[in-house]
Design goal:
It is built from 5 helices and 10 strands; from the N terminus they run βαααβββββαββββα. The strands form 2 sheets. The chain has an 8-stranded antiparallel beta sheet, with helices on both faces. A two-stranded antiparallel sheet has the order 3-4. The chain is α+β, with helices and mostly antiparallel strands and 208 residues long. The radius of gyration is 17 Å and the shape is globular. The chain has one domain: Protein Transport Mog1p, Chain A (3-Layer(aba) Sandwich), CATH 3.40.1000. Helix 1 crosses helix 3 and helix 3 packs antiparallel against helix 5. A hairpin with a 2-residue loop joins strand 8 and strand 9.
């Protein structure tokens, strides 16, 4: 797995935060600038017509989206490309057939996103969605849509609670996830927070 230069990433986030803070200190006319950053709920974002590239997108993720998802500046970040050797959750290394990245907060909150490198057709996408719905310890929902077909999940395990969305964008199977270490976290609130993060991932991965 390729480790990003964390100092550079954090510098970008701090710069974005500084700009936002400066905006708040300006006059009323200045603070109403329509270009000011804000997150978008997944419910308010149409993903069904979006096309995603089956390529690396991590450098295009807005650092402000990362900070909003984590609730603060990232303490760590990593990324990998198709063909890289990555370490799986059980400690076993394998060759990745996807592009992905992870940002970790000081409280161990993780914001992730990844897209399959091989193309995915409608039939396989429906199978992927059905398989995700059967995951142990998870509750699934077909709405809001994240591509077509798609599925949203909230999963609880010994490590905490994870909320994710995954779906087909053109021929690209895209997944985003937000995980917190607190098992007592409100699943509905985490699901909504993950939705805004997933909008950021979709925008970064979108094909022009």
């Amino acid at each position: 797995m390729r480790r990003w230069v964390l100092a550079a990433l954090v510098a970008v986030v701090v710069t974005g935060a500084g700009v936002a803070a400066g905006t708040l200190l300006l006059g009323e006319d200045e603070s109403s600038d329509s270009s000011a950053f804000s997150t978008t709920p997944l419910e308010s974002f149409d993903t069904t017509t979006l096309t995603v590239a089956r390529a690396g997108f991590c450098d295009d993720v807005d650092p402000r989206q990362v900070e909003a998802a984590l609730g603060g500046e990232p303490a760590d970040a990593s990324a990998y490309d198709n063909g890289d050797e990555v370490t799986l959750a059980d400690g076993v290394s394998d060759v990745a057939h996807e592009f992905g990245c992870t940002w970790t907060g000081a409280d161990d909150t993780e914001a992730r996103g990844w897209v399959f490198a091989p193309p995915v057709g409608q039939d396989r996408a429906r199978r992927l969605a059905r398989d995700a719905e059967r995951a142990e310890g998870c509750e699934s929902s077909p709405t809001p849509a994240y591509g077509a077909p798609s599925v949203g999940l909230v999963c609880r395990d010994a490590d905490g609670v994870r909320a994710s969305y995954r779906g087909l964008f053109g021929d690209a199977w895209l997944t985003c996830e937000l995980a917190v270490a607190d098992r007592a976290s409100d699943p509905a609130a985490l699901r909504e927070r993950a939705g805004t993060w997933c909008v950021g991932i979709a925008l970064a991965a979108a094909r022009d």
